[in-house]
């Protein structure tokens, strides 16, 4: 099974290390006792994610990421999902939090995967657990990328 990347609304798929990112996602999923099914990322702009939020969730606001669990069988140990990411919001969040764009992008990539695994971020305790899991995953990614930059040139 694999990880797929798509884009819309004039956005391009960011220049990520696709093989390393797939390995990273697989390792994070395995660390939670799950298997990788198929995960699709759709990169869009703020208006694209607002349209998605309105159409599928009846929410009328911008966000950085929307995650859809596409498993057909709740008991399936494999992770399947569609993840929509606003690259505009990733960029503005990187500026807001004084972090590198690549790190914020990878944080959002794994944030969606962690939702598919079962983590949530509604309460303060859940947010804390999510941030801890994101940070651990980012540490693993940095180890996998040792000697290269976070984004492919």
From TrEMBL:
Keywords: Cytoplasm, Endonuclease, Hydrolase, Metal-binding, Nuclease, Ribosome biogenesis, rRNA processing, Zinc
Cofactor binding summary note: Binds 1 zinc ion.
List of residues binding Zn(2+): 111, 115, 121
UniProt record similarity statement: Belongs to the endoribonuclease YbeY family.
Any GO BP annotation: rRNA processing
One Pfam family here: YbeY
InterPro entries listed in its UniProt record: MetalPrtase_cat_dom_sf_prd, YbeY
EC number(s) recorded for this UniProt protein: 3.1.-.-
EC primary class: hydrolase
HAMAP family in alphabetical order: Endoribonucl_YbeY
Protein's cellular compartments: Cytoplasm
MF-aspect GO terms: metalloendopeptidase activity; RNA endonuclease activity; zinc ion binding
Protein name as annotated: Endoribonuclease YbeY
Gene3D superfamilies: Metalloproteases ('zincins'), catalytic domain
Role according to the record: Single strand-specific metallo-endoribonuclease involved in late-stage 70S ribosome quality control and in maturation of the 3' terminus of the 16S rRNA.
Cofactor: Zn(2+)
Organism: Porphyromonas circumdentaria
Highest taxon listed in the record's lineage: Bacteria
Keyword Zinc: yes
Main location: cytoplasm
One GO CC term, this protein: cytoplasm
């Amino acid at each position: 099974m694999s990880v797929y990347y798509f884009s819309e609304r004039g956005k391009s798929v960011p220049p990520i290390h696709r093989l390393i990112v797939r390995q990273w996602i697989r390792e994070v999923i395995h660390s939670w006792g799950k298997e990788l099914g198929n995960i699709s990322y759709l990169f869009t702009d703020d208006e694209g994610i607002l349209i998605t939020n309105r159409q599928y969730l009846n929410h009328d606001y911008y966000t950085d990421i929307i995650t859809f669990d596409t498993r057909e069988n709740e008991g399936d140990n494999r992770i399947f999902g569609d993840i929509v990411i606003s690259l505009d919001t990733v960029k503005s969040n990187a500026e807001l939090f004084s972090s590198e764009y690549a790190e914020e992008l990878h944080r959002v990539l794994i944030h969606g995967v962690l939702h598919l695994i079962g983590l949530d971020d509604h309460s303060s305790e859940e947010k804390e657990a999510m941030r801890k899991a994101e940070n651990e995953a980012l540490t693993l990614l940095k180890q996998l990328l040792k000697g290269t930059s976070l984004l492919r040139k």
